[in-house]
């Protein structure tokens, strides 16, 4: 049986943006802070790309979605926590406010 939703947490994906599109936003913010962190994030993206479960398509690039924004930003927070914990608060502010809460 196919289940819809995020590969990692099984919640339905409330914001139909894939991690690469989401990542573009995050990377431009991160790059201004510390370009090294962008490289670390790219490494993580590679890991996420190995997941492949077709649910719906990204609004922006039409690629298949497999990981929700919550799980993706969780990965980013892990990186920040390890390398630059002082950015976490700002990250939370910028990216949770930027995400509209949608229900399907
Ligand atoms: Zn998830
Ligand atoms: Zn996309």
Number of helices: 4
Main pleated sheet: none
Fraction in beta strands: under 5%
Q: Which word captures the global form? A: globular
Termini separation (Å)?
A: 21 Å
Work out the radius of gyration: 13 Å
Number of domains: 1
Estimated helix fraction: 40-55%
| Average pLDDT score | 77
* Ligand identities: zinc ion
Count the E strands.
Answer: 0
Spans of at least 5 consecutive residues whose pLDDT stays below 50 are none
User: Which structural class matches the secondary elements?
Assistant: mainly alpha
Please trace the helix and strand order, writing H or E for each element: HHHH
Give the SSE map:
Elements: H1 19-33, H2 35-49, H3 69-83, H4 88-97
Helix pairs in contact: 1-2, 2-3
The structure holds zinc ion (ZN) (2 copies).
């Amino acid at each position: 049986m196919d289940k819809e939703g995020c590969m990692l947490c099984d919640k339905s994906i409330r914001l139909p943006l894939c991690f690469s599109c989401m990542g573009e936003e995050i990377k431009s913010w991160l790059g201004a802070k510390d370009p090294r962190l962008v490289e670390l994030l790219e490494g993580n993206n590679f890991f996420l790309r190995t997941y492949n479960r077709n649910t719906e398509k990204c609004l922006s690039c039409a690629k298949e979605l497999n990981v929700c924004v919550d799980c993706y930003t969780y990965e980013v927070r892990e990186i920040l926590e390890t390398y630059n914990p002082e950015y976490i608060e700002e990250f939370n502010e910028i990216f949770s406010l930027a995400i509209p809460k949608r229900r399907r």
